């Protein structure tokens, strides 16, 4: 993961100094606030029409950039992509019974394809991806793969893939009984000989139980096994927002204003610990 590092580091230093980022970094990383950074497609005239990707990656906090993106021994713990909440899971549905469970919406499929392309363009590549058996998680993996292939053909083929029932929806039929195995997965990742972090694509309840963070669909937390699985920050699409199933909102449309931004009352305020632990 080397392509974007010198440029984004310059943006981070500029943000922390309270000055504007240098022009060469603006297409890649733009400080949105003192704490939030944004990554877009770095080369508008590259191998993909930038019009195909109308989203950006946002991450927080800028202060933890090096730990979040320049280390192979961290873990990306991700929730599956945006789903169609008009179709709920049938009680006791099996994890591979796609006809009777909530699956990715059309927008969710596009979002996760964009997410994969943005990760690839910014040289963010896991060494291994562990994914739940559930259809929405497998679809998320497929769309991320399509995004990588769209942006940088062949790169995704170097990533090891494993489907693990221990990451299945907590307490569901054939689901994980607890997060012990998930916690061990995170804690035991040391990245020796690996070229990138570990990515785990799981579910809201599993992630909340492990981290006490309520995550949006398609959101990825960055965990540090060396600091007792501390959450270093998050990465998600600019358009990511709360869903009707796990957040106190009336309907999915009501969370956005006329410009497509999340209304202030639905934004999550999170406090991340920066720097080395004492």
UniProtKB/TrEMBL annotation:
InterPro entries given in the database record: His_Pase_superF_clade-1 (IPR013078), His_PPase_superfam (IPR029033)
Keyword Signal: yes
UniProt cross-references to SUPFAM superfamilies, sorted A to Z: Phosphoglycerate mutase-like (SSF53254)
Gene3D superfamilies: Phosphoglycerate mutase-like
Superkingdom, natural source: Bacteria
Record keyword Signal present: yes
Keyword terms, alphabetized: Signal
Signal peptide: 1-22
Name of the protein in its database record: Phosphohistidine phosphatase SixA
Source species: Palleronia salina
Lineage: Bacteria, Pseudomonadati, Pseudomonadota, Alphaproteobacteria, Rhodobacterales
């Amino acid at each position: 993961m080397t392509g974007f590092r010198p440029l984004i580091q310059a943006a981070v230093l500029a943000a922390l100094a309270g000055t504007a980022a240098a022009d060469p970094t603006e297409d890649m990383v733009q400080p949105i606030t003192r704490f939030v950074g944004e990554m877009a497609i770095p080369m508008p005239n590259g191998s993909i029409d930038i019009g195909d990707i109308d989203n950006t990656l946002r991450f927080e906090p800028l202060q933890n950039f090096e730990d979040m993106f320049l280390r192979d021994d961290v873990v990306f713990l991700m929730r599956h992509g945006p789903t169609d909440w008009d179709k709920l899971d049938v009680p006791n549905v099996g994890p591979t019974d796609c006809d009777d469970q909530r699956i990715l919406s059309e927008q969710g499929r596009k979002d996760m394809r964009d997410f994969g392309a943005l990760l690839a363009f910014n040289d963010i590549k896991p060494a291994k991806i562990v994914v739940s058996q559930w259809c929405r998680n497998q679809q998320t993996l497929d769309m991320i793969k399509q995004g990588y292939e769209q942006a940088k053909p062949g790169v995704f083929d170097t990533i090891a893939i494993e489907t693990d029932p221990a990451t299945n929806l907590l307490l569901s039929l054939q689901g994980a009984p607890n997060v012990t195995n998930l916690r061990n997965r995170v804690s035991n990742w040391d990245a020796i000989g690996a070229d990138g972090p570990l990515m785990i694509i799981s579910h809201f309840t599993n992630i909340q139980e492990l981290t006490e963070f309520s995550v949006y669909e398609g959101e990825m937390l960055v965990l540090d096994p060396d600091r007792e699985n501390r959450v270093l920050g998050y990465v998600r699409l600019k358009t990511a927002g709360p869903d009707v199933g796990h957040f106190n909102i009336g309907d999915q449309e009501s969370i956005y204003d006329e410009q497509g931004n999340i209304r202030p009352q639905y934004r999550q305020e999170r406090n991340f610990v920066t720097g080395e632990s004492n």
